[in-house]
């Protein structure tokens, strides 16, 4: 599809950057991309991985731009912080001042403790919480 039809479909469906209900009550995202399980709609694994890979790159850019200590971490801890950003957003990670200070001090047990005792714990699954805090504390998965 190209030209007039391409733009017309955008105009008629709208372009939504989060899930919205259309006038018939079905969920879609993007330009009319149905994601409503009542209609057996969704995204493919390929689409999911494109979104995921983009999210990872954006989380890493956010970390590099807002957390100057992030680059100095070992791979496991850097990935654990990236996962934390993916889960709760860069703003919530920036707000973890005591965790950041513990990391700067090389106190990874303290950093894991501070993360564990923050709002992060209530925002993610127990398993994700445990794996990330263990990785920050030990530097191992």
Please name the defining characteristics of this protein.
8 helices, 141 residues, three-stranded antiparallel sheet, mainly alpha
Q: Could you characterize what this model shows?
A:
The chain contains eight helices and three strands; from the N terminus they run αβββααααααα. With 141 residues, the chain is mostly helical. The protein has two domains: 37 residues, no CATH class; 94 residues, Lysozyme. It has a three-stranded antiparallel sheet with strand order 1-2-3, with no helix packed on it. A hairpin with a 2-residue loop joins strand 2 and strand 3. Helix 2 packs across helix 3, helix 3 runs antiparallel to helix 8 and helix 5 runs antiparallel to helix 6. The longest helix is centred in the middle third of the chain and has 22 residues. The termini are far apart.
Give a quick precis of the structure.
With 141 residues, the protein is mainly alpha-helical. It has helices spanning 3-13, 45-66, 75-88, 90-94, 97-104, 108-116, 120-123, 126-138; strands spanning 16-21, 27-30, 33-34.
